[in-house]
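Retro notes (design track)

What went well: tokenization of the new backbones is finally stable.
What didn't: we kept losing track of which sequence belonged to which structure.
Fix going forward: every design gets posted as structure first, then sequence, in one message. First example under the new rule, 456 residues:
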């Protein structure tokens, strides 16, 4: 606490109680270096989906912070996440984006590792090393792994709680994302490759935007005029076209104490399927059937329609378009965005095709909506770097003190705050978590913002 009573965290850079955040957290090289240590080296990070590596021996490259990792399924079917880095001199032991192998051969001096990470061959072990190299000590560096409904997360830090504890009350919203359109936990299939592109802005701009920035809708005004929705009608969201919104609690925004954030809306009782794919009877029938099954299976809870959210720190998911994106840090001034998108594995090809075209129109480097966002983030980042500009904090005060806890139903997961209009409570929750992790020295267990508040 400072003298005035405000809670200031993250080295005095994040003032949650006044909704003021220093621009330095987006542009300072020193803060960025701390983030890699204090946030990325101990958070659970998304690295891939099981459908990308269905068979024993399959691997796909992932990324954690700035570093390349191998996500693989070994010969016994077990998942691993290895640092893609040779223990001898650091060369990448795997230079292919994906494939199938039982061994990883380092191209530099030819050390060989098994698909379970063991160092199994070293040239000149006898004549060069005189049999004095203990190969058991020099296997690949391995992260902790957790697969949650097929979504693979990894973490370097033993002191971080298990993934489900880390997810905490956000579980309700991420479960909703993981469910197929019919409300079951069936199989998703990552279709095609991974969208990868670089953006000239700090990684936090994307993460906080997806966390709950409904306020920026005016910047998508032109996109709203064209046909982006999966059904090929005006609008850009799945829920614009597959639901008849007779009455909606609009823009309910929810946060949980872990600093993960979700967005969505809660339909009132009398909502129904709105026919939208009449030109494509196979697609129309499939969506209508899923919709009915979901209502039957989930009952009252089927009224919740998630839009997406951000799992702290850098994983943002979008419901409907069903993408899973990561804002990888690539220096303070650059983000390398990776995004996969998923389709229900058992859906007819016609449905998969409709969804594939939808995501290409909507998100990624070719997506019209994301192009608007990237332009905003690029200039906003420039605005965080200026000598004069950096003397003035960013404003995150919208809705401060007007958060409504627990409203409007008691079954929405967790310690929920919801507003029926726009608010920046989600961004404040995100930065409260960021500050809590940045305030925790290496080696200590990180605390949630709610724990810090309670202690104060
Ligand atoms: S760097 Fe890999 S064997 Fe030398
Ligand atoms: Fe946007």
């Amino acid at each position: 606490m400072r003298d005035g009573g405000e809670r200031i965290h993250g080295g005095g850079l994040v003032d949650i109680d006044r909704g003021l955040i220093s621009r330095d957290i987006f542009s300072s090289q020193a803060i960025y270096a701390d983030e890699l240590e204090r946030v990325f080296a101990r958070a659970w990070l998304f690295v891939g989906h099981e459908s990308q590596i269905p068979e024993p021996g399959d691997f796909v490259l992932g990324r954690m912070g700035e570093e390349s990792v191998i996500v693989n399924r070994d010969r016994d079917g077990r998942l691993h996440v290895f640092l893609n880095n040779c223990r001898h001199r650091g060369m990448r032991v795997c230079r292919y984006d994906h494939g199938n192998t039982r061994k990883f051969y380092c191209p530099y001096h030819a050390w060989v590792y098994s698909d379970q990470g063991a160092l199994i061959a070293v040239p000149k072990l006898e004549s060069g090393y005189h049999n004095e190299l203990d190969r058991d000590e020099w296997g690949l560096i391995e992260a902790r792994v957790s697969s949650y409904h097929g979504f693979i997360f990894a973490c370097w830090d033993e002191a971080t709680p298990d993934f489900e504890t880390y997810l905490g009350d956000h579980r309700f919203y991420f479960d909703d994302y993981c469910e197929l359109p019919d409300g079951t936990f069936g199989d998703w299939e990552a279709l095609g490759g991974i969208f990868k592109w670089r953006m000239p802005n700090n990684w936090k701009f994307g993460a906080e935007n997806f966390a709950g920035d409904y306020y920026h809708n005016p910047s998508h005004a032109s996109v709203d005029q064209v046909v982006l929705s999966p059904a090929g009608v005006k609008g850009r969201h799945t829920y614009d076209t597959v639901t008849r919104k007779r009455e909606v609690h609009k823009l309910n925004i929810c946060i949980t104490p872990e600093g993960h954030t979700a967005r969505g809306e809660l339909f009132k009782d009398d909502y129904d399927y709105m026919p939208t794919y009449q030109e494509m009877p196979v697609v129309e029938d499939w969506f209508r059937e899923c919709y009915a099954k979901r209502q039957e299976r989930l009952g009252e809870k089927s009224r919740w329609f998630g839009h997406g959210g951000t799992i702290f720190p850098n994983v943002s998911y979008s419901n409907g378009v069903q993408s899973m994106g990561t804002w990888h840090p690539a220096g303070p001034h650059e983000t390398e965005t990776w995004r996969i998108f998923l389709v229900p594995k058992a859906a007819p090809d016609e449905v998969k095709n409709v969804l594939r075209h939808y995501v290409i129109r909507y998100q990624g480097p070719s997506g019209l909506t994301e192009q608007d966002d990237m332009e905003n983030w690029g200039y906003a980042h420039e605005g965080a770097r200026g000598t004069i500009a950096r003397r003035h904090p960013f404003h995150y005060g919208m809705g401060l003190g007007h958060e409504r806890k627990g409203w409007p139903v008691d079954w929405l997961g967790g310690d929920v705050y919801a507003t029926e209009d726009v608010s920046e409570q989600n961004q404040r929750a995100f930065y409260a978590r960021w500050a809590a992790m940045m305030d925790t020295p290496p080696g200590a267990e990180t605390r949630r913002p709610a724990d810090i508040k309670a202690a104060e």
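Added context from the reviewer: The radius of gyration is 23 Å.
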